[in-house]
Design goal:
InterPro entries: 6-PGluconate_DH-like_C_sf, 6PGD_dom2, G3P_DH_NAD-dep, G3P_DH_NAD-dep_C, G3P_DH_NAD-dep_N, NAD(P)-bd_dom_sf. This is Glycerol-3-phosphate dehydrogenase [NAD(P)+]. One of its GO terms (molecular function) is glycerol-3-phosphate dehydrogenase [NAD(P)+] activity. The protein is of the alpha/beta class and 332 residues long. It is built from 16 helices and 8 strands. Helix 4 links the parallel strand 4 and strand 5. The structure holds nicotinamide-adenine-dinucleotide and SN-glycerol-3-phosphate (G3P). Nicotinamide-adenine-dinucleotide binds next to helix 1 and helix 4.
């Protein structure tokens, strides 16, 4: 039985802790707030982030990271991207020297423009072979309801990838291994921005043609960036690319798509943030870092640029649409 620590008790950390426990792993979660840890530990439910899901009684929780990390062979990092560096600084000393670190976050750090695995290696000093990422069409609520899905676990060390795969494989959750960490991380971070764009289109009142066009052209720009950074195009054509992009861009459960929809229907950034109710829509910050990353590699990402300008430069959604459609005509 693998001993796992899940650091972060939001909706995905909680749903993934259930998956690990259902797969037979021994799981302790870390929560920032006492009330959340208590609700998981005593009532087997995360009332704040995943209400209505009964967690296996084997899932324990604490606000003490040392308790969660004690003896953990697998350390799952489930806090939002922009909070990872600061938290990791506090956890590094408590992480076992040979533990495998698995990132669940889908974002690019602002300022440094680093992917999460790079942040993890830099802060903890871990060799990249110990660091993996999990990404795919994985809406937490559907997984908590045990609806079947697949995912990708990417790690440069294939033995560790297989260990991580075994630790979370259940009758409803099917993990595939991969060695392309860059592709999985770029797919996961960038699709949130494209989901914001799809939400904006839906919020304005556009239908499926518009959304399908954004998904498809979104995939083209994600693939351009991924390949420039060294990713394999086949990763972006797989679960961590197309799979996640389609799920996130199409589902009303996606916080990014919903956020975009609020902006598209005329809401302000502040009102959309308020409606998100403390839940993270990673694309809102990552659109800026992804845009800067793309610029530094001379990669064109017009949709990402438009989302950044709507979110952070006051461009209206109708004006963003006009500027996208007014671009020079070219071949596909
Ligand atoms: N929810 C999903 O369906 C889903 C699926 C796949 C991946 N993800 C990714 O997983 C990551 C976590 O998302 P989530 O859905 O669990 O988020 P969430 O908004 O549901 O919860 C965020 C959690 O992080 C904690 N948190 C927020 N700021 C923090 C800080 N500064 N320090 C420590 N903890 C902090 C919150 O208290 C909460 O426990 C994100 O990168 C997201 O993109 C989410
Ligand atoms: O709710 P979102 O928009 O953060 O998306 C959730 C997951 O990343 C889907 O795989």
């Amino acid at each position: 039985m693998v001993k796992a620590a899940v650091l972060g008790s939001g909706s995905w950390g909680t749903a993934y802790a259930k998956v690990l426990a259902d797969a037979g792993s021994d799981v302790t979660m870390w929560a920032r707030r006492e009330s959340v840890a208590k609700s998981i530990d005593s009532d087997h439910e995360n009332v704040d982030y995943l209400p209505g899901t009964t967690l296996p009684s084997s899932v324990r929780a604490s606000t003490d990271a040392a308790e969660a990390l004690d003896g953990a062979r697998v350390v799952v990092l489930a806090v939002p991207s922009q909070a990872l560096r600061q938290n990791l600084g506090e956890w590094t000393e408590l992480i076992g020297p040979d533990a495998t670190l698995l990132s669940l976050a889908k974002g690019i750090e602002t300022g440094t423009l680093m992917r999460m695995s790079q942040v993890i290696c830099q802060v903890t000093g871990a060799n990249p072979s110990r660091v993996g990422t999990l990404s795919g069409p994985n809406l937490a609520k559907e997984i908590a309801a045990e609806q079947p899905t697949a995912t990708v676990i990417a790690c440069p060390d294939s033995n560790r990838a297989i260990e991580l795969q075994k630790a979370c494989a259940t009758s409803y959750f099917r993990p595939y291994t991969n060695s392309d960490v860059i592709g999985c991380e770029i797919g996961g971070a960038c699709k949130n921005v494209i989901a914001l764009a799809c939400g904006m289109a839906a919020g304005v009142g556009f239908g499926e043609n518009s959304v399908a066009s954004i998904i498809t052209r979104g995939l083209a720009e994600i693939t351009r960036l991924g390949v420039a950074l060294g990713a394999s195009p086949s990763t972006l054509a797989g679960l961590a690319g197309v799979g996640d992009l389609v799920a996130t861009c199409s589902s009303p459960l996606s916080r990014n798509r919903s956020f975009g929809e609020r902006l598209g229907s005329g809401g302000s950034l502040e009102s959309a943030q308020e409606a998100a109710n403390g839940q993270v829509a990673e694309g809102v910050k990552s659109c800026t870092s992804i845009r800067a990353l793309a610029e530094s590699y001379d990669v064109e990402m017009p949709l990402t640029d438009a989302v950044h300008r709507v979110c952070h430069e006051g461009l209206s959604v109708p004006d963003a649409v006009q500027s996208l459609l007014g671009r020079r005509h070219k071949s596909e």
